[in-house]
Amino acid sequence: MHLGLDLDPSLLALQRVLVTVSRVWLVITSVGEAPVTVPPKAHLTLYSRLESLPQLAHWAMQHTSVDDDGLHLSHAIRSGHAVVVSDASLHGTSGTSSTVVEGSDPEHRLLCHAQVPGTIKDGDSLRCELVGNYSAILCVNAICLQHNVSQGSITMACDNINSLRPFKPEYLPGPRDKNLDLMQAVWASVEQSPIDWNPVHVHVHQD
């Protein structure tokens, strides 16, 4: 619609004006520069996207490496050919996990290593395995966001069958779960994932 008036300055350069209505009068109450809308910061790389995750999750993927920004893996996830292999090591009350994400071949694989947080009871390998699974989901979900993967699937292979429970559709975290903090973190990350996760239990030392 044209009002028949030439605006000077142009409409885009107008200032912000607040007015109130008093009976039949419009009263200007303040004048100032129009607010500047700052667009959200773009995630230029997979690493920057991982860094944008909540600070409380950084420990799980701070030692992550991949050489092509996860592009090769994004194609494998879409086609259902991606696989995660996770394993852990426990020494006394100290534990670590290692995770590999691959497509149909080891090219452009993603590697992730993490230190197991919290108190580890002697012999509690489950907690260590859960850390590797959690790291894998965070990285895979970030790849999906980075490359706009909205559907696909990935195989999750681990030699600790209890650590795979959060991947099953019928699972819900419960107060009796051992290592509830990590069980719930894994479950919630799977629920937020745009792809299907297929858990596979492998025999010890063959994953």
Which helices and strands appear, and what pairs or packs with what?
Blueprint (H helix, E strand, L loop, with lengths): L15 E7 L2 E8 L13 H6 L11 E3 L5 H9 L2 E10 L2 E9 L7 E6 L9 H22 L6 E6 L21 H13 L3 E6 L6
Parallel strand pairs: 4-7, 7-8
Antiparallel strand pairs: 1-2, 3-6, 4-5, 5-6
Can you tag this structure with a few keywords?
6-stranded mixed β-sheet; alpha/beta; two-stranded antiparallel sheet; 24% helix; 207 residues
CATH class: Alpha Beta
Name the CATH architecture.
2-Layer Sandwich
Strand content: 25-35%
How many helices in DSSP terms? 4
Low-confidence parts: 1-5
Task: Characterize the biggest β-sheet.
Answer: 6 strands, mixed
- Rounded to the nearest angstrom, the distance between the terminal CA atoms is 68 Å
Characterise this structure.
- There is one protein chain.
- The chain is α/β, with parallel strands linked by helices and 207 residues long.
- It has a single domain, classed as Nucleotidyltransferase, domain 5 (2-Layer Sandwich).
- Helix content is 24%, strand content 27%.
- It is built from 4 helices and 8 strands.
- The chain has helices at 46-51, 71-79, 125-146, 180-192, and strands spanning 16-22, 25-32, 63-65, 82-91, 94-102, 110-115, 153-158, 196-201.
- It has a 6-stranded mixed beta sheet. A two-stranded antiparallel sheet has the order 1-2.
- A hairpin with a 7-residue loop joins β5 and β6.
- The protein starts with 15 loop residues before the first strand and ends in a 6-residue tail after the last strand.
